[in-house]
Amino acid sequence: MARSVRGRHEQQSLFTPGFGRRPHRVAGRASEIADLEASVLESPHHPNSTGLILGQRGFGKTVLLNEIEDIASSEGWMVLKVDASSPGVSQRVLAEAAKHPFAQEVLSESRSADATRTSRSVSRGVQLRWASISEQKSETRPGPSVRDTLEVLGSATDERDTGVLLTVDELHAGERDEMVRLAADLQLVVAREELPVAFVGAALPEVFYTMLRDPRLSFFRRCDQYEIGAVSDEEARLFFEQGVNDAGGSITAEARELLVRHAVGYPYKMQLLGHWAWRYADAPFREIDRDAADFAEAQASSIVRDRVHAHIWQNISHEERALVRAVAAHEGEAALWDVSDALPYSPESITDMLARLDAVGALGYDGKSHVRLGPLMDAEFVSDATAALRAMEQRGGAAAQSAASGQPRRSRCNKPMKQVPGRCIRPAGHSGRCRSK
Ligand SMILES: Nc1ncnc2c1ncn2[C@@H]1O[C@H](COP(=O)(O)OP(=O)(O)OP(=O)(O)O)[C@@H](O)[C@H]1O
Ligand SMILES: [Mg+2]
Predict the structure, then answer these.
(1) Is the preceding omega at residue 267 within 30 degrees of 0, hence cis?
(2) What CA–CA distance (Å, rounded) separates 110 from 382?
(3) What pLDDT sits at residue 406?
(4) 54: CA distance to ligand 2 center in Å?
């Protein structure tokens, strides 16, 4: 977007440094998009027309979900997109359906008292199905379910040779009961091969250690999994070049290579780096050079630490933090036995912790003998967090002394959270639900 500043015609940066923001151009992901398209959209009658995108925070799950939604829409599919991070998922699916002009036509025609009149868009079979659901609703149920809606819309779109795509973002954050109901509905509609109804979800990989342990959610476990990680340096290089050039700016080869190196293929950081380099250089009026790249690295690292590393750190247990600290103390890669020797935990609990820390991106564990810090943790952050903890412990010592001298101090609830890693931070004996942040 162009705007005028101090008489100059300024081209704003095309970088999009914010969670869930659509990038100007998608870096990499071509094979994931092609695979999703082939298995989900090209064979909607196949029982495997289901996908689950897994990736750490900021690796581009939402972006990938948006890509597949766009492709489906452009091919005439009816796309229903919802986010599970707040309660009311089923209602949102129904509200999404009601927004589509085609669905409005199908549902209103089918609901109309005169179900015998000739339909403009769907066959009588679909109308009658919806009419029967609507009748049942008044006597036994409050309204049509996700299953009813998907069945009717699936039949209607089938007659037009397309289908319905339901996408659910932030699946890991869904309310357990709602997810169980949704899984049961999807199981009945999607897994049956007759209707062209496809499903794609997106979740943090830790979902396998939390929600998806529940056998009632096996529908989601059985989806085809698309694990997304870092993009290649080649793709990152192209991303910086195009992001700068498309907005009318320029970048030196040295600065571009520095940005590629600092990004380590992490899409969220790539956007932050591009954004801050552009701003620091006052692009497009000046070329992005080494100074701008250095400044961008300092800014981007600090933002990633605050928004990503700190979030992970808060949501792991004290024991897990001790394990991360022990790994950070060995620069680079640590042998498992060195780490376990330094900690008072059994090999079994260390192995469990390693698997979970690997899933949240705090550690990278090869499953055998070596462990390293993961893509979302760095030694500097661990050392700062540890120093902050020591300082708090010293203050805590002072508080304990004042408690001993008669001043009350409220303890925390500290119960483990059911659906997300971490513990409750509310005061002990609180009313209502636990919260981890
Ligand atoms: N392939 C990509 N190319 C360019 N930018 C990307 C790509 N993937 C993600 N981004 C950018 O990275 C940031 C994070 O993307 P996104 O919100 O999709 O991540 P996410 O995995 O859904 O994160 P969260 O776990 O927080 O939901 C956004 O600024 C987005 O524009
Ligand atoms: Mg997301």
Answers:
(1) no
(2) 60
(3) 41
(4) 10
**Ligand 1, CB cutoff 6 Å, lining residues:** 16-21, 23, 26-29, 55, 57-63, 204, 267-268, 271
Predicted local distance difference test score (pLDDT) of residue 437: 63
Architecture of the domain made up of 317-406 = Orthogonal Bundle (1.10)
**Which pLDDT does position 419 carry in this prediction?**
64
Ligand nearest the Cα of residue 274 is: 1
62: CA distance to ligand 1 center in Å? Answer: 6
> Which ligand has an atom closest to residue 207 CA?
1
Nearest Cα to 282, choosing from 8, 1, 22, 23?
A: 8
- In the chain (437 residues long), the average pLDDT of successive 10-residue segments reads 50 92 96 91 74 95 97 93 96 89 68 48 64 56 77 85 94 96 91 83 92 94 93 97 97 98 95 97 97 97 94 92 93 86 90 91 89 90 87 67 45 65 66 71
Domain range 30-227, CATH architecture: 3-Layer(aba) Sandwich (3.40)
Our mutation pick for probing the ligand 1 site, out of 268, 306, 309, 420, counting the most ligand atoms within 8 A of Cβ, is 268
What the block records as the tokens of 372 is 């390293």
pLDDT for 405 equals 44
pLDDT confidence of residue 152: 86
Euclidean distance between the first and final Cα of the chain, in Å? 36
Between strands 164-169 and 197-203, the pairing is parallel
Name the class of domain 231-312: mainly alpha
Q: Whose CA is nearest to atom 25 of ligand 1?
A: 57
Domain ranges in the chain are 30-227, 231-312, 317-406
* Residue 360 half-sphere exposure toward CB, CA atoms < 13 A: 25
CA distance 260 to 273: 9
